[in-house]
Design goal:
410 residues; alpha/beta; three-stranded antiparallel β-sheet; 16 helices; globular
Length: 410
C-alpha cells in the first residue's frame, strides 16, 4: 500500500500561504505536477499513492471515480490561482504523473493542461510532460495529446526481459515501449523518455545490457535508470520475506549503474543527474530540475506534494477524501511545514549535489567543507570544479552519493 504522509502543522482550510512564500517569487520558475492516482493493476514494487478499481470499490463512491477525476483536479488548479493571488509567473513546466495518467481519456489530460494554461498562462517554451504505460496508448491517443499541447512523454519500460518484468508485476510486453517511442515521434513529440529499473531479483548483467540496448535502439533522447528499492508493505517485499525471490544487492546495483553509465555514455547520452541521461540539454527533464534546484511547484491531486517559497505541503491521499474536500470548497491539504533557513541549506546540498554541475562549496559549514576535502582526496569529487568553488561528484562519487552527502551537510 502507499507509504504514509509526513507529519506537519495543519493546512488552513482555504489553503492560504504565509506572505513570505511569494517573496522573490519572480526570480523562481513555477511548475505544476498533476497526479493521476489510478492504475489497472498494482506493480509488486510500487508504494506510490495509486489505486486500482478493486482498491477503490466501496471506499469513495462516485467521488473516487476516474470518470469525473479531471473535473476534480481542475478544481484544485482553480484553488491554486486563488491561493497564489496575483502572482504573475507563467507556468514553466507541467508534469502529469501517477499512477497511470493514460488510463484517463486523452481529452481529460488535455483539459487538465488547459486549466493550468487558462488560470496561469504557459511560458512560450513550456515543457509539458505526461507519463504513460506502453499498453495504455496508441497512435490516435498520442496524436490527441500532442495536438492538445503535450510535447514530452515518458514511457515506463523497466526491462526488455520478460522474466524481469514478471518479477516486477509489469503488464506490458517486451518491445511495446520501443514501439511507443516511434509512435510518439510520429505524433510529433519533441522529447521522449524511457524509464528503466535495474537490480531486480533474477536479473543478470546480460539482461540489463539487453534492456539498455533495446532502449537505445528505440531512439529516445532521454533515459532514466533507477535502482530497484524494496519498500516495506509492497508485494515484492513480502515475496522476499517469504524467500520466493532473493533480496536486492547493493554491490549488484553498483555494477549495474556502471554498466548503464558506460553504455549510455558510449551512445552519446550524458548524465546530468545521478539517475538521468540525455542526448542534449534540450532533452533534459526541466520539471525534475525544478525539484532538484528548489524552485516552486504546485502538486495537484491526491497525496501530491507542493513547494512554494520555503513552504511545503501535501494533500490527503485517498481520491475520495481529496474530491470531498474540494467539493466542500476546502483545500485538500493534509499538512504543511515552513522550512527554516537551515532546512533549506541542507536540502540544497542534498539535491544539487546530484546534478552534473553540483552544489556551491559556500553552502558548506566548516565540518562539511572538511568532509568535502576528504571526498576530493578519495576521488569522490572532481578536482576542476572544486578549484572554482563547486562540489561535483565523480563516477565513483555517484555510486557513494548518499555517503558523500552525509558528510557535506554537517
Amino acid at each position: 500500500m502507499p507509504s504514509a504522509l509526513p507529519d506537519g502543522e495543519p493546512m488552513p482550510e482555504d489553503g492560504a500561504l504565509p506572505a513570505s512564500a511569494l517573496d522573490g517569487a519572480a526570480a523562481r520558475p513555477l511548475g505544476f505536477y498533476l497526479h493521476v492516482p489510478y492504475c489497472a493493476t498494482r506493480c509488486g514494487y510500487c508504494d506510490f499513492n495509486t489505486y486500482t478499481a478493486t482498491e477503490l470499490r466501496g471506499s469513495g463512491g462516485v467521488l473516487a471515480s476516474r470518470d469525473n477525476y479531471a473535473d476534480t483536479l481542475i478544481d484544485e488548479v482553480r484553488l491554486a490561482r486563488k491561493v497564489l493571488g496575483d502572482d504573475p509567473r507563467p507556468v514553466r513546466t507541467v508534469f502529469v504523473g501517477g499512477g497511470t495518467p493514460t488510463l484517463l481519456a486523452a481529452a481529460d489530460l488535455v483539459r487538465m493542461l488547459a486549466a493550468v494554461r487558462d488560470e496561469f498562462g504557459l511560458a512560450d517554451d513550456a515543457e509539458i510532460t505526461t507519463e504513460a504505460n506502453p499498453e495504455s496508448v496508441d497512435p490516435a491517443y498520442l496524436s490527441e495529446l500532442r495536438a492538445g499541447g503535450f510535447n514530452r512523454i515518458s514511457f515506463g519500460m523497466q526491462s526488455a526481459r520478460q522474466h524481469v518484468l514478471k518479477v516486477l508485476d509489469r503488464t506490458h510486453t517486451p518491445g511495446r515501449p520501443e514501439a511507443c517511442v516511434a509512435e510518439a515521434r510520429a505524433a510529433g513529440f519533441d522529447h521522449v523518455n524511457l524509464d528503466l529499473i535495474y537490480g531486480t531479483p533474477g536479473e543478470s548483467d546480460d539482461d540489463w545490457r539487453a534492456s539498455l540496448q533495446a532502449a537505445l535502439g528505440a531512439g529516445p533522447d532521454h533515459v532514466s535508470a533507477y535502482a530497484l528499492i524494496v519498500e516495506e508493505g509492497t508485494q515484492l517485499a513480502r515475496r522476499i520475506r517469504r524467500g520466493e525471490v532473493p533480496m536486492t544487492d547493493d554491490d549488484v546495483h553498483a555494477d549495474r549503474y556502471l554498466i548503464a553509465d558506460e553504455v549510455l555514455g558510449q551512445a552519446g547520452y550524458d548524465w546530468y543527474e545521478v539517475s538521468n541521461w540525455a542526448t542534449s540539454e534540450a532533452g533534459r527533464c526541466l520539471h525534475n530540475e525544478l525539484y532538484w534546484r528548489g524552485a516552486d511547484w504546485w502538486g495537484a491531486g491526491p497525496g501530491a506534494h507542493s513547494h512554494v517559497g520555503g513552504v511545503r505541503w501535501w494533500n490527503v491521499k485517498h481520491p475520495g477524501a481529496y474530491a470531498g474536500a474540494l467539493a466542500e470548497g476546502r483545500s485538500p491539504g493534509a499538512g504543511r511545514e515552513v522550512l527554516a533557513d537551515e532546512d533549506r541549506r541542507v536540502e540544497r546540498i542534498l539535491l544539487e549535489l546530484r546534478l552534473r554541475d553540483g552544489c556551491p562549496l559556500d553552502l558548506l559549514r566548516p565540518a562539511g567543507l572538511a568532509a568535502a576535502r576528504r571526498a576530493l582526496g578519495e576521488g569522490l569529487l572532481e578536482e576542476g570544479p572544486f578549484a572554482v568553488g563547486r562540489a561535483v561528484l565523480t563516477l565513483r562519487g555517484r555510486l557513494l552519493a548518499d555517503a558523500v552527502v552525509r558528510g557535506l551537510v554537517d
